[in-house]
Structure formats: C-alpha cells, structure tokens
Amino acid sequence: MRPSLAASLLLAVTLLGACDPSHVDEMRSQERLFLGSLGLSAPGPRAPGGRPGRRHVPSALWRMFRSSEDARTRESDPCTVSEYGVRGNIIRYVQDQGRLVSGWSSSCQACVEKQLFFNMSVLQPVELLSLAQLEVKFHWRPLRSAELLQAPGHLGVSLYKVIRATLRGANPQANRRLLLSQSLRLQPEPSSVTMDLTPLAENWRKPGRNYGLVVELLPLGAEPEQLLPFHPGHSLPPEPAFALPPIQASLVAVSLNPHQCRSRQRRSAVRLPVTPSNVCKARRLYIDFKDVGWQDWIIAPQGYMANYCHGECPFPLSESLNGTNHAILQTLVHSLDPRGTPQPCCVPIRLAPISMLYYDNNDNVVLRHYQDMVVDECGCR
Ligand SMILES: *[C@@H]1O[C@H](CO)[C@@H](O)[C@H](O)[C@H]1NC(C)=O
Ligand SMILES: *[C@@H]1O[C@H](CO)[C@@H](O)[C@H](O)[C@H]1NC(C)=O
User: Fold this and answer.
1) Of all protein residues, whose CA lies closest to atom 6 belonging to ligand 1?
2) Angstrom distance (rounded) from CA 112 to CA 166
3) In which domain, by residue range, is 101 found?
4) What is the pTM of this model?
5) Which of 224-229's residues contact partners 24+ apart within 8 Å by CB, and which partners?
6) What is one cellular component GO term in this UniProt entry (predicted)?
7) Least confident residue range of 155-164, 230-239, 298-307
8) Is residue 294 one of the residues assigned to a domain?
C-alpha cells in the first residue's frame, strides 16, 4: 500500500479543509469515515484472492453496473434504477441466511421445508426502501437421465411469511401466512420464482419483526413409489439427485440514500490538461484499488481516474481560480503578512460520482452510486 496514494484518495473523496492531510492516523480515520458512508464497518478481509465461497456477482447486477458506467457521460438521473423503475441509488443482493433444509415438514409428510432469512439491518436507517424482490432459484441437475424420468414432473412451491416465533410443540402452521403457491416444472435448467415483498421487507427492518419466510416444496404428480426418496427413512442415500433441487434465494433490495442524491450530478467528460504549472488546478490521479488494499471487497471498477487538486493560490487571485470573496481577502492578507496568514487552499469545488460494485460486511453484493468520487474542478478556498 502506498500511503501517499491513499491519502490522495481520501483527500479527493472527503473534501478536507486542511491543505495537507497526510497523517497516517488521520488517513485511517478518513478511511473509516469513507467506509462508513458505504455502510461498512471495516474493509473486508484481505486474504489473497478474496474470501472462499464468496457469492458470484449476479449477471443482472453486472449489466446494471455496465449501463451505469455508460450513463455517466450522459444526462441521466443517478437516483433512479431504470431496470426496476423505482427511485434508488443502492442495489443490494441480500443473501439468504436461513437454515438449509429444516427436514421433513411436520405439517405435510411429503414436503421439504427451507427457511429463508434476509438480514435487513444491512440497510442503514436513513435509507428509503423502494423495492424488495424475492428471487428463489431452483437448480435441479439430475445425475443420470433415468432420474429425469423417475422424478416427479412438478414441484408445488409454497411460500409463507412467518409472523411470530413458534414454541416447541405448537403447530408452526398457525404462525404462518401463505404468500404464494404455484407449481414449478422440474427441468434441468434452473427455474425461479420471484415475488415483490417490499412492504414485508420494510416491516423486517424494525427490530424484532423479522421471522423470515418458509419455502415448502411438495412433489406433485408422481406415483407413490416415485415419491419414495421424498419420504423420511427411505433406504436410498439421504440426498438422491432428484429429491430436492438446491435452492438459492436472494432478496434484491433497491434503496435510496437521500443524503447521497443531490440534484447536480452531471458527470462532465473533463479532460485534464497536462501543462506544467504550479497554480491551483485539478491534476490527473488514477487510483488503483489494489494500491489502497481494497481490491478484495471492491468488485468493480478496479480503479478509476479520481484526480486531485494541487497548486498555489497566489495574489492576486485570478477569476479562473474560482476563489470565494473570502479567499480573495485571505490572499491579500497573506501577501501582506505571509507568516501570519496562510494562502487559501486549492480544493475540489466540483466532484462527480462513480458507480461501485462491492461486497458489504455480510458478503452481500451491492451496486451503489457514489457521489464525490472524481475531482472535476478545483478552486481556492
Ligand atoms: C444482521 O446483521 C447485523 C449487522 O450486519 C448483525 O449485527 C446482526 O447480528 C445480524 N442479525 C442476524 C439475525 O444475523
Ligand atoms: C474554475 O471553474 C471553471 C468553470 O466554472 C473551470 O473551467 C476552471 O477549470 C476552474 N478552475 C480550476 C482551477 O479548476
């Protein structure tokens, strides 16, 4: 890690008042501040090659990331997610943390149940939830084609919300409400069920309200002997290839952080000149996230042109230096008493956003629109 680069990044993104914030402590605290604004408590572990078993990035999220990159140079509202037609600047794939298979259902002998749990506290309280869409994917890969013939043709999929905790011995059905019930054809290609759960997910954000969901799978249209593998105590291996398609569930949560959504968002395609000069202006700086040790949790981009402000704010302050009246007076006083009063600082006065795709502390994949990441213009302040 090159501290000077990290310091420049933090300078670029945090608009510090001081001209030269190069202390390591200050840098650490600025890093924490920046991560906090991303909703992270600390950067992810820095094991080489990243964490094993990390979720792959859903292709829909990659598509949105690429289109947001293209949109940067166009006039487009960064606080609307056009893919879903809702307001938002953060898209999370919240990972299911429910227990894998809770065994054979007590209420339905041939059913298999899976709990789904999405920890909604990854959303910061300030965020407004615009959309929560559940996506349950069934990856059913028969090992042999014979299993395709033996297996039941359809699965009955029922989705329940759990409204309170069930005490031992009580009937769990009493604490559930059916949300959806449909039949799914089993096929070698993954199939999925999606459902809008926005009001429910909003409720889950309140403390003590999230009891999660239950998915119940019931093989349909099979002969009784074909159901054999679905029954407890059968003599086949505990998980025959066709008994239960592995379930992968995620909650796509789109939210808006209103503090990070100001109206002036235009990303100018500013090309910085490379003319040497010691007067205040924006300078080119490419930040490679590897250099600041963030490559394990930032998925994309790998780096970006962040730029920084540097240079003198000399007397008399010319108009092109975009000084405030205060800065004009400060340069005047500085010219009279250089020891007593410093020159104004050369700082960013216009910053532009970028989009970032990263893993949060819970390993959810997040696409977020980040303001104030690129210096477009500098001025004397
Ligand atoms: C949810 O996530 C928060 C913070 O990430 C954590 O403190 C909390 O224990 C989690 N809750 C559950 C039930 O896993
Ligand atoms: C001051 O602002 C103008 C446009 O408003 C810009 O062209 C110029 O580069 C800025 N000056 C500096 C030092 O960045």
Assistant:
1) 121
2) 18
3) 90-224+243-256
4) 0.72
5) 226/150, 226/151, 226/152, 227/110, 227/152
6) extracellular space
7) 230-239
8) no
Q: Is the pLDDT of residue 173 over 70?
A: yes
How many whole angstroms separate alpha carbon 309 and alpha carbon 345?
A: 9
Q: Tell whether 202 is covered by a domain.
A: yes
3-state SS string over 83-94? CCCEECCEEEEE
Distance between CA 141 and CA 148 in Å, rounded? 9
In a domain, 153, yes or no: yes
Whether 194 is covered by a domain: the verdict is: yes
Q: For residue 66, what are its two tokens?
A: 């690429």
The residues that bridge with 308 in the sheet, in sequence order, are 283
Helix (H, G, I), strand (E, B) or coil at 208: coil
Name 308's Cβ contacts closer than 8 Å, sequence gap at least 6. Answer: 8, 11, 12, 282, 283, 285, 348, 375
* Ligand 2 atom at shortest distance from the alpha carbon of 281: 13
Ligand 2 within 6 A of CB of 281:
yes
> Higher pLDDT residue, 18 or 115?
115
User: How far apart are alpha carbons 98 and 119 in whole angstroms?
Assistant: 10
Which pLDDT belongs to residue 126? Answer: 93
Counting the structural domains of the chain, the total is 1
63-95 pLDDT, tens digit each: 888 887 776 655 567 788 888 999 999 999 998
Ligand 2 and 368: CB distance under 6 A: no
* Whether residue 320 has its Cβ less than 6 Å from ligand 2: yes
Which CATH number does the domain housing residue 155 bear? Answer: 2.60.120
* Nearest to 214, CA basis, from 157, 151, 161, 139: 161
Q: 246 versus 161: which is more confidently predicted?
A: 161
Q: Which atom of ligand 1 is nearest to the CA of 41?
A: 5
Locate the ligand 2 atom nearest the alpha carbon of residue 311 and give its number.
Answer: 13
Higher pLDDT, residue 47 or 145: 145
